[in-house]
Amino acid sequence: MKVALFAASSSKVDHEYFRVASNLGRFFAKAGFTAVFGGGGIGLMGSLADAMLSDNGKIIGVIPRFMMDEGWGHPGITEMIITDTMSERKNRIFELTDAVVALPGGMGTLEELTEAITLKQLGLWHGQIILLNTKGYYDNLCRFFETMVNENFMRHEHKTIWRVADTPEETMSLLEKSDPKDKEWRKIARI
Amino acid sequence: MGIVELKTFNIMAFELTDSNYKEIIGKSEIPVAVDFWAEWCGPCRMIAPIVEELSRQFKDKILVAKCDVDDCPRAAAEFGIRNIPTILFFKNGELVDKQVGSAPKPTLEAKMNALL
Fold first, then answer.
1. A-chain residues within 8 Å CB-CB of B101?
2. Interface pTM (ipTM) of the complex?
3. Domain boundaries, chain A
């Protein structure tokens, strides 16, 4: 199974985030999952990739050309897909993957996560979306999503488009299954 | 096609539909394992080769069937399928065990052996 990983590129975040990202990478390698990620070599993405590579895990990097030219690509990734634009990069990632895990991250992670949610809401992509809520990082975002629902910017049912996991173990448990209703979101895409 | 003929034709991972599932599960002379899946479901695709292997391994002892939830919604609803993959294990037409979510081969193999 191929799982997209969205995560911080920042190297300055708390050590706990790195520890959890590495753990998840090890779980992925053990489960035989293929990770698909943005191809960067630093931050939580780099840490997760390193953990997977050291356990002989499979990783596909999808990176825009300008980032490769800047030397930002992970040097150890054997399968690197180079795209012309950031949009193409996202499209390729969604084409390739069966599920998404968003680890803590900044604006890029948030943008990728919300695109996944939107695509699923519109019935254009059907995979599991999991927020790995290390140190409660996504608590405020989840509260904001609740506000969206409470104020009718989203349907109540849309809350099951994503799931929140507190640990890598819980993430793996959620990744083991899909919801049959995930094919039917387009029927209620309109609010 | 009756169950005896199924065994003779050496069909692996028999395809269930909304029109045949009751008969297949209810009248099978041997235990039945039904894999509820969907083409778009990543974890389902992950265990598909394992299910196929087990259908060969337990040939003539357990009937392994697949049910695409998009094509047989009635069967999925009757058995309350909330997550996929779900494998239901039947003996003499009665549900005796289930596996929700993907699982490694030894786990599924143990459940198959428990049916015998």
1. 173, 176-177
2. 0.77
3. 2-188
